[in-house]
Amino acid sequence: MLHMWDENLVGLWDSGPYDYGVMESSWVCLRGDGTGWSAWANAAGGASLSQLTWICPHEGQVELRYTWTASGTGSPGAPPALIEVDEEGPDDTLVRTTFAVSMDTPFIGGPPVMTLHFEESVECSHRYGLLTREADRLLARSRQEQGSPSAP
Q: What is the mean pLDDT of the chain?
């Protein structure tokens, strides 16, 4: 079986456009080399950060294989940086789900955004708006401004 990456998935995706009325947000970063990470944060300051690898075994299907996860207290910002780690270690979670990428207008209004729709929930959302295709560059600049370490 040929494993490949769908270029439409590459980028930093944010659940923010679809977070109306919820107390948590999540982010998924999928890099063009098959690596990435996901993060979750809630209004009380809890946060987690996970490293992963990803492939598309079939058209319209993605597998996210988590390799490491840390959770604790996050700093304000999107996505959060962990400032206090309560737990960390290897993670063998596998999420296999179908997906679609299309323009969508979030139900809270606003302009249409490129949206990644997962059939199964990833972190705390099924839908993510594209923040940027240049995720690593954007995050490094953001972390530098916040005085925090870079994302994985």
A: 87
Phi, psi of 139 (to 5 degrees): -70, -40
Cα atoms in the 13 Å half-sphere on the side-chain side of 129: 16
Q: How far apart are CA 27 and CA 123, in angstroms?
A: 8
The pLDDT of residue 135 is 73
Q: Is 108 exposed, middle or buried (0-12, 13-18, 19+ CB in 10 A)?
A: exposed
pLDDT, position 150: 45
Nearest to 69 by CA among 59, 55, 82: 82
Widest pairwise Cα distance in the chain: 44
What pTM was estimated for this model as a whole? 0.86
Distance from C-alpha of 37 to C-alpha of 12, rounded to nearest angstrom: 9
